[in-house]
Specification:
Layout (H helix, E strand, L loop, with lengths): L5 H9 L3 E4 L7 E4 L3 E4 L9 H9 L3 E4 L3 H9 L8 H12 L3 E8 L2 E11 L2 E9 L4 H16 L3 E5 L3 H5 L3 E4 H11 L14 H11 L1
Parallel strand pairs: 7-8
Antiparallel strand pairs: 1-2, 3-8, 3-9, 4-5, 5-6, 6-7
């Protein structure tokens, strides 16, 4: 794929496709348009008792966009990854434009977990997440869902449905249903940066009060 720019990338998300590479070292990038799509209904995120207990007790801190590039790099730091150098650079450019964001979990000054994605209207396209401490990625995902709800987002696209995401409440929908939800969400307004950053114990409290 040549001449891929941040603007072209956003156009791809707007029509329901997203980029991937075969590996970190593969320079070829291709578009993906799954027949069945994973989404996380924002009112259906499931916090297990053990996760809720861990979030209430943890000393981990939630930060937003504190080190976006480090989150992308950590997500790519695995044996099997679809994030090559060009894709990472494109997401960095989208972040600079205010169209890509990260929710991060910090242990003092050590980044231990996080998730990042792209925003368009009231749609959030989750790209990848990582964990270097037990439950850190789950905590980041919970903080992200809370932020999306608070900021007025309507769609949280997880791309594919994994067993891990399903255990947290994600579901799989058809391409047709996904495109209908996307068409609605991308025309709405939401501001990812408007929501306040709250401690993980308050994330649990808000989620359990509304569940």
């Amino acid at each position: 794929m040549s001449d891929l720019t941040p603007e072209v990338l956003l156009q791809g998300y707007a029509i329901g496709i997203f980029p991937m590479a075969e590996s970190r070292t593969d320079t070829e990038i291709f578009w993906v348009d799954p027949e069945r799509r994973g989404v996380m209904p924002l009112d259906s995120f499931h916090i297990s008792r053990s996760l809720a207990r861990a979030m209430r007790r943890t000393t981990f801190e939630v930060r937003v966009d504190d080190d976006f590039d480090a989150v992308v790099a950590a997500c790519a730091d695995r044996a099997d990854t679809w994030i090559n150098e060009e894709i990472a650079s494109l997401y960095a450019a989208l972040h600079t434009k205010g169209c890509a964001h990260s929710v991060e979990i910090w242990d003092n000054e050590t980044l231990v977990g996080g998730v990042y994605g792209v925003t368009l209207g009231a749609a959030f396209f989750g790209e990848s997440m990582f964990s270097r401490r037990r439950d850190a990625s789950k905590m980041a995902l919970a903080a992200l869902v809370d932020r999306l709800k608070s900021a007025g987002f309507k769609l949280f696209d997880t791309q594919f449905l994994t067993e891990h995401l399903a255990s947290l409440g994600a579901v799989e929908i058809t391409r047709r249903v996904y495109h209908a939800q996307l068409d609605h969400a991308k025309m709405q307004k939401a501001d990812f940066t408007a929501a306040e950053v709250i401690p993980l114990r308050q994330v649990v409290q808000r989620m359990t009060q509304t569940s």
